[in-house]
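Q: Could you fold this chain for me?
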Amino acid sequence: MTFLQKVEDAKKLLTWAIAEYPKICVGCSFGKDSMVTLHLVMSVKKDIPVISILAETEFKETYEFAEKMKKEWNINLTTHLFKQVGKGENCCGKPKVEMTKEALKPYDAWISGVRKTEGITRADFEPVETKNGLTKINPILEFTELDIWRYTALNGIPVNPKYKEGYRSLGCAQCSFPEESESESERAGRWKGTAKVCGECGIHTQPLR
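A: Sure. Below is the predicted structure, expressed as structure tokens.
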């Protein structure tokens, strides 16, 4: 599948989902994948509700970037802050999942920026997933990391400044680390040095309702 076909398929899926689920929102972490997803979604529906689940331990650049983009893109944004309960492999876990559940209560569906090539935990994800009455739409599932940066460059999408410091996957400041080797996988910097390395916070692998 070509890059342009992936973009076209993403827009078709989003157009269908937004028509099918009137109570739908977008989840946005203000990382590279979220920004591409948000750009695609807003090309279909500009005023769609956007939820952002952030810890008090995010990089200060992430808070600043989120506020900047809210103003520049006129995003219909609601930010939900949660408190961390631990570090290492306990960082960005249960409290993030619980806050996401709370944020999604008013909605029947939500749009996510997950991709299959990010890690083995996401390889079997589907474009449309329904669990316990809540549907998740994954429009950029087939995009590669290169596709993300290509779409970003072609559309002039601003990016979180932390990527300039060598990060490839951004979580919070406690559990995200820059790239150390060319042989590393994209999510190798997440929970590095713990049993959870390259893993998941849970919002994409656990039922949210």
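A (continued): The chain has five helices and six strands.
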